[in-house]
Amino acid sequence: MAILPEADEWTPGIYQYEEEDVLQGGPDGMDNVQGKALANRTLWLKNQIANLSTGKQPLDAELTALAALVSAANTLPYFTGAGAAALTTLSAFARTLLDDADAAAARATIGANDASNLTTGTIPAARVPTLNQSTTGNAATATKLATARTINGVPFDGTANITISSTDASKQPLDDELTALAALVSAANTLPYFTGAGAAALTPLSPFARTLLDDANAAAALATLGAAPLVNAALGGTPTVPTAAAGTNTTQIASTEFVQAARGASAPVRQTVLTGPCDGNGWPSFLPATSANLSISTQNVGVDSAALIVGSASGFSIDGAVDRLGITTENLTWALTANATNYLYVDVSADGTLVPGSTTIPPIYTNSNAPAATNGQATFCIKLMRMFVGNGAAPVKANRVFVGEAVTSAGAVTSAIAYAYNGIYDSGFYAVAAASSYNKNHNLGVLPLSASQLVAQNADGSGWLVYMGVQGNSTGINQGASIISASRVSMMLKTGPNYVACFTNAAGNQSYEPSGYARQLISRGW
Length: 526
Known about the structure:
The chain is an alpha+beta fold. The chain has 8 helices and 31 strands. A hairpin with a 5-residue loop joins strand 29 and strand 30. About 20% of the residues are buried. About 5% of the residues have low confidence.
């Protein structure tokens, strides 16, 4: 008797014997056609069933809980209970802490102070935790679990081994996260973490870090680190802090270096906006030209060079000029009066905060020492270098600085200007020709007390160059170029009918120039 050969394949169809078929033995004989096909199918099914167990992991509650997680970058799986897991954030910084070999290294990583440096002060009793940990039992000599458990449905109390079925139902389904973890090559003192969806890596986990990971709260972590709390910590030695930038106005700790610099700081130009955001020509750009309603807000204000810094003159002391500096890195908003010219100001608080306000009463700048008592009238006494605001009965000292103005209609701002920084205006060179007038906005906010003018051959000031005072050159006001009128915010240049400048050339002859480039330098004079 021989055994039919079997093939691992699914034979399509089972042959049906016909009446005319002639019976024949042998492996390919007609008598064995049906049996051979069924044998092939049986072998194929057997192998398919055997393959079902390939690539499976034994079913486990903890692995099932991990498989249910959706991994993400910089996350760490942890157990929340028996057969339950969740993800917690694992920052790049935390990973630098996990590989620290001891408490000193961990304190250096987080910039904490050694508790041994707390040489002064008293720790309140409420800050000292009471030990309340049970030490009953001895795991080293235990032979049986206090409470029996089940593993995959099989009871287990620790007294005997158990057998887990190897059927398909006991295998762990394949999972991207578990596959990523399985691909890692474990090593001593390492911890797996996810670097993305279905991607994992190892990060160092020192023995010290493990003592930190089981701390239940911040107080326990501080004790592990031997660190001091940030609140009410009594620091010993000579602790240091970063020195803040000049003009900083936050709750940041001020170093002695910052305090000394602030004490010696004095505004080089007084009672003005010192600096702030500028446009491409260097003009102030902290106010928009218009607004759709009866309010206006600053623009372009931010940190560093975009901060709006104001100097309020506060008179004099035995040490010299006294100024109060104010700064804002956030936008300010002024509420305005309809159908009027609104003068925009800020009051500089003692802590440097700027409080915006507006008035329709023009401020007075005077050399007199007698400020007005009229209610709402602002008077800056130049000799005293002090601002006063009347309350109806008397003038009251105020740290008020006017920064711009806005003209309103019944419901909107039709025009607005920001006053020039440091009370100085420089027009830069611009083309001029004879018999012409040119209007320029100096935006000082006060009538200029001093002005000078240059007329040059070229736009960069090169070539021939003539200096002129505000009253024109020696050839007469109707011949050269002269500033002939000025207001609180503007001025007009008028050139003569024949030329803009007259100068003596290298040959000693007078040269009359019908065109050129003019530049005005204007100051409020104090």
